[in-house]
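Figure 6 in text form: structure in, sequence out.
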């Protein structure tokens, strides 16, 4: 694990504690020095940067790049490029014909073939049509609740470049009582791109039906530097887990061949998992994704940020292989890692397609807890990520031929 920076005392910044008020010149000098070291003028970490005075952190830099890349379902190319660069020199890299990325790292044996799969795509939208007045109507790609979309900033990805817009909303002064109780549907909403006509939108901005749309939300280190705020943790963190696992296996012996896979179009039907599993032909499948944290007001469940690696014991797309689940439990116990367990009655992961490939693949879904998924922002705990990588590395080392044969 990387060294931790202590959480600042509540109500005081790192720069302000124990110091006398500064004059204007001194304040300007302090601000300049802080910002040059990656902090804001108030002493808190700047967006996407380490706290003031901290060393450059390659892990955070990678996570920032990965999560800020845009990748709505069917449009994941920019994310795949970031991941491919990170995996240079680790193993043979290829893609399936839908665009899923595969990094093959051979151990001491060709088999068993172990597939670690996170999905590249994030929940997003698609341009549906343009009104005569120049407003953009749009469709959801993945599961959205209309209320979290309202009044948010979005980026429309055109062939000429990105166009910023905002989802229009009525001021509360004009809402009738029945409007306040209404559940909003995405199809009722529109994006304002600052245009005055459909001509502006089509000809000057080059926005066309079918263009992808993603949230505009930067990677941010929170006041507690272990908590990371960003769009698309669902599921860039799964891709990062797969990538970091095979990177840490470099120079280490493992009795198998492991495939770090970044799938496409998971949010619209686990599509890339199907095609990439067909390509890999795995003997064991491990889907890596976020789980839902239940450590906020009004939620029910034990999963929490900082609670350790998360294991899915049930979801609507798959039931984990019991032998594989037991192996995960045993491995975590040997490492002294606490596990969290999740059951999801609605929703699934890439394991849903991996486990029915060919004659069947022993599979399980693992990952980290996250707050506020399927919205513009979500939060994860960095320690959960690092512990899950540690667990996956140890697990891959145990998946030899005889162990995998016993799973079925």
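Output sequence:
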């Amino acid at each position: 694990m990387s060294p931790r920076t202590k959480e600042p005392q509540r109500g005081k910044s790192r720069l302000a504690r124990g110091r006398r008020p500064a004059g204007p010149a001194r304040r300007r000098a302090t601000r300049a020095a802080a910002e040059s070291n990656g902090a804001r003028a108030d002493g808190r970490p700047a967006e996407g940067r380490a706290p003031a005075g901290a060393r450059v952190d390659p892990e955070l830099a990678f996570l920032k790049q990965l999560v800020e890349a845009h990748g709505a379902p069917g449009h994941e190319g920019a994310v795949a490029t970031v991941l491919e660069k990170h995996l240079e020199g680790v193993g043979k890299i290829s893609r399936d014909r839908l665009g899923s990325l595969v990094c093959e790292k051979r151990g001491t044996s060709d088999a068993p073939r172990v597939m670690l799969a996170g999905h590249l795509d994030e929940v997003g939208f698609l341009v549906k049509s343009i009104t005569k007045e120049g407003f953009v109507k749009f469709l959801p790609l993945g599961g959205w609740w209309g209320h979290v979309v309202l009044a948010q900033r979005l980026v429309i990805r055109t062939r000429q470049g990105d166009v910023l817009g905002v989802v229009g909303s009525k001021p509360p002064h004009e809402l009738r009582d029945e409007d306040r109780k209404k559940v909003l549907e995405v199809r009722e909403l529109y994006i304002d791109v600052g245009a005055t006509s459909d001509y502006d939108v089509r000809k000057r901005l080059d926005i066309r039906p079918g263009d992808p749309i993603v949230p505009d939300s930067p990677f941010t280190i929170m006041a507690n530097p272990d908590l990371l705020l960003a769009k698309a943790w669902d599921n860039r963190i799964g891709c990062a887990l797969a990538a970091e696992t095979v990177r840490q296996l470099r120079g280490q012996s493992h009795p198998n061949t492991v495939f770090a896979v970044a799938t496409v179009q998971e949010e619209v039907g686990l599509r890339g998992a199907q095609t990439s599993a067909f390509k890999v032909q795995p003997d064991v499948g491990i889907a890596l994704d976020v789980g839902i944290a239940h450590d906020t007001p009004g939620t029910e469940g034990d999963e929490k940020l900082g609670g350790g690696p998360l294991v899915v014991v049930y979801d609507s797309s798959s039931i984990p292989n019991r032998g594989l689940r037991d192996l995960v439990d045993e491995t975590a116990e040997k490492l002294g890692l606490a596990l969290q367990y999740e059951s999801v009655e609605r929703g699934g992961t890439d394991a849903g397609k991996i486990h029915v490939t060919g004659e069947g693949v022993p599979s399980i879904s693992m990952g980290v807890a996250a707050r506020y998924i399927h919205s513009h922002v979500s939060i994860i705990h960095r320690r959960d990520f690092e512990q899950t990588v540690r667990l996956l590395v140890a697990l891959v080392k145990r998946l030899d031929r005889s162990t995998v044969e016993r799973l079925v």
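Caption detail: The chain has twelve helices and 17 strands.
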